[in-house]
Amino acid sequence: MKQKEVIGVRFKALGEIHFFQAPEKYQVGDLIIAQTKNGKMLGKVYYANRLMSESDLPDHLSVVTKATDSQKAAYERNIKDAQCIKKDVMKCIVNLGLGMKLLEVEYTLDRERLVVYFTAEGRVDFRELLKVLAGKFHLRIELRQVGPRDEAKAIGGLGPCGRVLCCSSFLGDFVPVSIKMAKNQNLSLNPIKISGLCGRLLCCLQYEDQFYEVAKRRFPDWGQKVETEDGIGRAEGLSILENIVKVRFEKSPALIDYDVEEIKFSK
């Protein structure tokens, strides 16, 4: 299996990790310049030189170069300038009466393009906004609509657990989360209890999912007949962390706890 020497790069503090060819040795934290679909961008090395299978990498890998002092200065200047014009972009959106929420504005490194990130309930006709912004700033404008998870990541806040949101504190990539994960962990399926500030399923549902997926193989299904020292009943409750199966017998409505090793059942 063919391998390539690459480095992992992030263009935002908690952004997605992108891989690029490494023509020389890099250290974690080095600032580099990479050619992306959005133009030249400055990023930080997150993974130093490593060999990866070509099957795990994009079809086309750009080559990176180390950022010069002038490029680093341009990057810092772009960040400050983008913050200054954010209010102007917001005024344009309000004046046009568009149903969109501005999240972030950023320049590409070469300042040939201004990227505007926003959220909206549905489709937005922003053709007039493009004309206004292009005429105002005299450069190419790109509008990108992002989802509720990206909005939560950008704004931040406290989750139901009382801690800073995972997405805005340490999560780089969003991992798919399904309702099956909540079922595996015997959690309440009340949307309010298993949803984050973004209104989507909590990202943390996937942290322990693999453990529960494996652990549940030792337990009977809900309602399944099980054999105990007291007779045959049905499993009507599981406590996986305590290795407990709650069994109900026909002769008694009460649930009785048994260690999972003390009962017999067939999968």
What would your notes on this structure say?
- The protein has helices spanning about 70-95, 125-135, 150-155, 165-170, 180-185, 210-215; strands spanning about 5-10, 15-20, 30-35, 40-55, 65, 100-105, 115-120, 140-145, 225-230, 230-240, 245-250, 250-260.
- The protein is of the alpha+beta class and about 270 residues long.
- The protein has four domains: about 5-65, no CATH class; about 70-145, 2-Layer Sandwich (GMP Synthetase, Chain A, domain 3), CATH 3.30.300.20; about 160-210, no CATH class; about 220-260.
- A five-stranded antiparallel beta sheet has the order 2-1-4-3-5. The protein has a four-stranded antiparallel beta sheet with strand order 9-10-11-12, with no helix packed on it.
- About 20% of the residues are buried.
Secondary structure topology:
Layout: E1 3-10, E2 17-21, E3 31-36, E4 39-53, E5 65-66, H1 69-95, E6 101-107, E7 113-119, H2 127-137, E8 140-145, H3 148-155, H4 166-169, H5 179-184, H6 209-215, E9 225-228, E10 231-239, E11 244-249, E12 252-259
Parallel strand pairs: 7-8
Antiparallel strand pairs: 1-2, 1-4, 3-4, 3-5, 6-7, 9-10, 10-11, 11-12
Radius of gyration: 26 Å
Number of helices: 6
What's the CATH architecture name of the largest domain? 2-Layer Sandwich
The SS-based structural class is alpha+beta
Task: Average the pLDDT over all residues and give the rounded result.
Answer: 87
